[in-house]
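Homework help board

Subject: predicted structure for assignment chain

Our instructor gave us this sequence and asked us to write out the predicted structure in token form, then describe one feature. I got the tokens but I'm not sure how to describe them. Can anyone check?
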Amino acid sequence: MNAGAVDPADFTDALSGFATGVVVLTVRDGRDDLGTTVTSFMSVSLEPPMVLAGVGADGYLAEVLTRRPRWAATVLSTGQRALAGRFAAEGRPSARLLLASEPHHRGPASDALIPEAGVAALECETRDRIEAGDHVLFVAEVLTADYISRRGSPSSASTTATSGRPECRTAMMGT
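My token output:
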């Protein structure tokens, strides 16, 4: 095989078994609320606490996240697969409509909508934006971490099981 000649379908298949948590990323844009399901999400640093989220470069959400540095990321539980699907659907409506029948609140640091039945919710502020192929990576400092469910196991983008979550607590990080 020629170096650099990776078939996109082969690449997708090769990484499809990698278990990642499913995260709903939300941001408030003036009078509207946007959100999407992301599986490109990871911790980057403990001190200061930082995460990275990848979103499609050609989407409106990438444009909004460039203008609005504060956003929220909610790690979904296994019981929230339907919610993950709604946030992943093409042509999805406002995050307010997607969460209309779900318990949720506005994050005090980001003003973004946060589903309440998730495993954890992080409010973040973008510190760096990196273009990476067809995605934009947003490196962000975590402003608050809210463990809002003791019982929920994280939802996974593959069939690999995950167990064990930290005790329910809220932590303020930075100001």
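Reply (TA_rk): Your tokens look well-formed. For the description, you could write something like this. The radius of gyration is 16 Å. That's the kind of observation they're looking for.
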